[in-house]
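From the shared-data thread, chain only:
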Amino acid sequence: FMLNLFLAACSIVLCFPLGVLLALGRRSTLPLVRAVCTVYIEVIRGAPLFVLLLLANVALGFFVPDSLAPATSTRAIVVFTLFTAAYMAEIVRGGLQSVPRGQVEAAKAVGLSAVGQTAYIVLPQALRNVIPAQIGQLISLFKDTSLAGIAMGLFELLTVSGAIAAQDEFRGQGLIGETLTFAALLFWIVAYTMSRESQRLERRLGVGVR
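Structure, as C-alpha cells:
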C-alpha cells in the first residue's frame, strides 16, 4: 500500500506542473511549440496506460543497458507522470478557455506583460475553475497505480492481495473476497479523503460562489 501511495504522490507532484506547461504550450502563438504540445497530448491520450507500462518495463531493455536502466518503480513514476500530464493539460486548457476575455484585456490595460497576464490573472482563475476535474483525474491516477503490479511486477496492494490468498496456508479457504474487499477499502479511504479535501478547497476559494 505504501508503494501505491509513493507512486501516486510522486506522479502527482510531477504531472501537475508538466500538465500546466503543456496546456499553455497548446495555446501558444508559436506554431512549433503548439504543434509539439498538441502531438504529445493526442498521442499519449490515445495510448492505453497498461501498454505504456508494459513498454517501459520490457521495451526499455532493448535500448538501454541494464546497468543504466532506472529502477522499475522509477519507470512506473515516469509513465504515470507523462500519461496523467496529458489529461491534466486538457483539463487546464478547458480552465483557460473559461476565463472571460475581459480579464485579459483588463490585465493589458494596467500594463502587465504576457507572462504577467498568464501568471497573475489567467492561470489562477483557470486552475480554480477546474479544481473538481483536476482532483478527479488525480484520484484516477491513484487507482491506476494498481496496474503497475500487473504490467511491471511491482508488489503493490492489489498484487499482494492476490498473493496472500494463493499461499498454501490459505489456499482453498476462499479468502480472496476478504482480501480484495480490504484492498478496495484502503483505495476508497484515500480516494474519499482526496475528494473531501477538494470540496474543502472549493469552499475556501469560493468556487461557484464568486
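The CA atoms of residues 99 and 126 lie 6 Å apart.
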